[in-house]
Amino acid sequence: MKRLGLLMLLLFFVVLSGCATRSISNSGYNPGGYYSRGTDNPLYKGELSEFDVLGIDAGKEITEQDILAAASTGKSRLTLRKGDSILLIQSGAMIPDQDMTESAERYFSVSVFTGVPEQGKKTNASYAKALRLAAAGAGIEKILVYWGVLESGTKNLITKSVSWVPLAGMAIPDQAQELRIRLKVALIDVKTGQWDIFVPKVFEDTAYSASLTRERSDQQQVELLKTKAYQAAIEGTLARYSR
User: How far is CA 76 from the centre of its chain?
Assistant: First the structure.
């Protein structure tokens, strides 16, 4: 018992660390490591870009006159109030995560749309207009698109040294994972194409796990942070655009 107690105290000593990122749309556990183009979710085909949803043609030659014309166009402030209709899109996902949809439905009339990148689209501008047309056909006023990444850092604890004891090595916490979620939200007016982007509050969490509990611990962290971030994102959107 004394020996086990000593091992638990040593949880706070770090001997090795690493870091990785993954999309919120590709957030399953992957012991082999995470990459921006992760493959643990077979339905994941990458992310939408801002150019896709905002209608900016990156391949078009832009003149100074174009910039001046855009800057001189009088535009009213984007607004979004309780009860408004929105088309909700999660970049990289066939449908938005349930926690995000439920958070949005507390304040808005929500329809959902795929955030899987379209293969072989002609231009960013035509794709963005197609989104606006789809929303307009359903009588929807605004499009809300969000992106997210999970950033993790793992630290092997000194208790990793007991891994040569098969049972103990699987049951005693030997790794700490620090996980952070970052979201980016774009609001687009269906009629005008006017848009705005902001970054909601960032959330972090730290969890200790052993070999037997690694996957469960990781996914519990992911779900916890998603729930917090999604609620904050919707509340932040309402506060930002309803004033």
Answer: 29
Q: pTM for the complete prediction?
A: 0.82
Q: What are phi and psi of 115, to 5 degrees?
A: -115, 15
Token digits of residue 184: 């980016």
SS3 content of the chain, % helix, strand, coil (to 5): 40, 25, 35
How far is it, in rounded angstroms, from Cα 114 to Cα 122? 18
Give the model's confidence band at 16: pLDDT under 50 very low, under 70 low, under 90 confident, else very high: very low
What gap in Å lies between CA 234 and CA 72, rounded to an integer?
31
Evaluate whether 25 touches 166 at the Cβ level (below 8 Å). no
> Rg of the Cα trace of the chain?
22
CA 21 to CA 208: how far, in whole Å? 19
Closest listed residue to residue 162, CA positions, set 150, 148, 173, 152:
173
117 has pLDDT over 60: yes
What pLDDT, on the 0 to 100 scale, is given for residue 123? 61
**Buried b or exposed e, range 158-171, using 16+ CB within 10 angstroms:** ebbebeeeeebbee
Beta strands 85-90 and 142-157 are parallel
